[in-house]
């Protein structure tokens, strides 16, 4: 039979009961029949209170028997404390209070502690030795408070551990969502372009779009498979991660992506570095989707208190008349570089509402909304909108 924590706990409780009986046995035999009867009843009460057993198919912990037995053991310990001169009954009394504080709900454990204190005061008043019992009553109160505080501290640690597990699950889910959204949205753009090129009978260009979509699907699947394991390992340093994203942008679009890093470089918290990396990835994806053929610039600035990240699409967004067949310029909340180029194949043949619906269905904008929520959780801010330099996504988080 394997030794488990439950078996060890039962053996320890049985050992406590045996030690109590052995410690009280000699004094009980000397004190006479009343002490012998009380000691036997005390051992039986402790057995009912501490050892698990079943009653009519129910666990003893689900019945009031342990609480009643613990109360009886408390009262008997007070009685033995008055009959026998040694300190064993006082130790048993304190053990009963500790067991109640550590194992029973607060109302029940408080009832056991009050029973012990009241019994001591009443017994002291009967025997005329109030001072001796008053000291033990004070010690009982102090032991109860310490035991209950230790139990609360343990409960807090357990709650923090559960919360950490839930936070880790949420983080993994968010990362998987970002990975799949990044991959699938780019695939949709390429497949939609392939569909329009096939309608225009430009099969070679359509085949190239389909090939790119297939490559994106393969890389997205591989990244998703690595995500869970990679999340629990040490991620690469932030500058290294940003350089990889810039190189991926250049290899995919054949346009430059310039990375500028200024300030004293230092490691941030894993959550902060992850937010900076994912925001850069989302912004570059939006530039590829909504402003193809344009370069990008990444500016990362370190300071002692803050870390600033700017991803800029240098080409100013094209303004369209209200009734133009090109879609309206989206609000800053919906992403970086969101304009669809007016020369997109087939754009002029479709009504404006069809184009807008297609862009909404491709998941555009939701990524940066998620990045904004992540920035707020870290105590930072994220803004996205057009300025003198083009369309800029700006993330600022504490360092």
Structure description:
This protein has 399 residues and is of the alpha+beta class. The protein folds into two domains: 124 residues, no CATH class; 164 residues, Heat Shock Protein 90. Helix 2 runs antiparallel to helix 3 and helix 9 packs antiparallel against helix 11. The longest helix has 70 residues.
Q: How do the strands and helices of this protein lay out in sequence?
A:
Blueprint: H1 5-31, H2 33-50, E1 54-55, E2 58-59, H3 65-83, H4 88-103, H5 106-127, H6 130-199, H7 203-231, H8 238-253, E3 257-262, H9 270-290, E4 296-302, E5 306-313, H10 352-361, H11 366-377, E6 381-387, E7 390-398
Parallel strand pairs: 3-4
Antiparallel strand pairs: 1-2, 4-5, 5-7, 6-7
Helix pairs in contact: 1-2, 2-3, 3-4, 3-5, 4-5, 4-6, 5-6, 6-7, 6-9, 8-9, 9-11
Helicity, as a percent range = 55-70%
Physical arrangement of strands within the biggest beta sheet: 3-4-5-7-6
Structural class: alpha+beta
Major sheet size, sense and barrel closure: 5 strands, mixed
SS summary, helix count = 11
Report the mean per-residue pLDDT as an integer: 76
Poorly predicted spans? 319-366
Characterize the overall form.
Answer: elongated
Beginning-to-end CA distance, first to last residue: 53 Å
Structure summary:
The protein has about 400 residues and is α+β, with helices and mostly antiparallel strands.
Describe this protein with a few key phrases.
elongated; Heat Shock Protein 90; membrane; 399 residues; 5-stranded mixed sheet; 11 helices; two-stranded antiparallel sheet; 7 strands; alpha+beta; transmembrane helix; HATPase_dom
